[in-house]
Each structure stands twice: as structure tokens, then as C-alpha cells.
Amino acid sequence: MILERIENIIIESLKEYNQILESLELNNPTNKTMLYGEKSVLDSMGLVYLITDIEEKISDQFSKNIVLADEKAMSQKTSPFRDVESLTNYIQNLLEE
């Protein structure tokens, strides 16, 4: 249930950002949509926009403030920002702390 809510927040943010970007790859984002790296459709500014938007929505829906782009996230062996699924799992872990 929580995972589904988090994934919906991320996908909603991607769709909203795509209204600006107008990328075919983001028309129908899924949990496999790449967010960061070679095959990502987002540039660094797009990722920053997305992270900020997701943090706000998580705060609104879960009444808990989280920081996605911190030392913990950046020091992980595999980036939590590589795709929607990995970011969803990362956010769930932050919410459970």
C-alpha cells in the first residue's frame, strides 16, 4: 500500500514535469522508467525538479519531511535515482526510519 502510494507520487511528478519537457518516453512512465544515468530522459535540472517535487508531495501525503539528495543517497553503491522502482524503495526506507 505504501509502496503503491509512493510510486504514484513519483509517476505523477514525472507526468507533471513532462508537460514542460514533452518527452515521448515520459508520456506513460512506469516503475522501470529511468530517472538517472545514460538511458534517462532527465537532465540534471530535471532530476533536481523531480526530487524537490517528490519531497513536497511526500511531506503532504505522509506528514513526514524527507531529504532525497543527501550524503546517504549519494554514497550508495547503486543510485536510488536510477529508476522509479529504486526511488520508490528508497523513499519507503526513509519513511520507515
Account of the protein in words:
This protein has helices at 2-21, 44-62, 71-74, 84-96. It is mostly helical. α1 packs across α2. It starts with a helix and ends with a helix.
Write a concise synopsis of the structure shown.
By secondary structure, the chain is mainly α.
Compute the number of strand runs.
0
Give a quick account of the main beta sheet: strands, pairing sense, barrel closure: none
Give the overall form: globular
- What is the end-to-end distance? 17 Å
SS strand fraction: under 5%
> What order do the SSEs take from the amino end to the carboxyl end, as H and E?
HHHH
Radius of gyration: 12 Å
> How would you state the average pLDDT, rounded?
92
The helix/strand class is mainly alpha
* Contiguous runs where pLDDT drops below 50 for at least 5 residues: none
Continuous helix count: 4
Q: How much helix is in the residues?
A: 55-70%
What's the arrangement of secondary structure elements?
Blueprint: H1 2-21, H2 44-62, H3 71-74, H4 84-96
Helix pairs in contact: 1-2, 1-4
Please give a handful of descriptors for the protein shown.
mainly alpha, 0% strand, globular
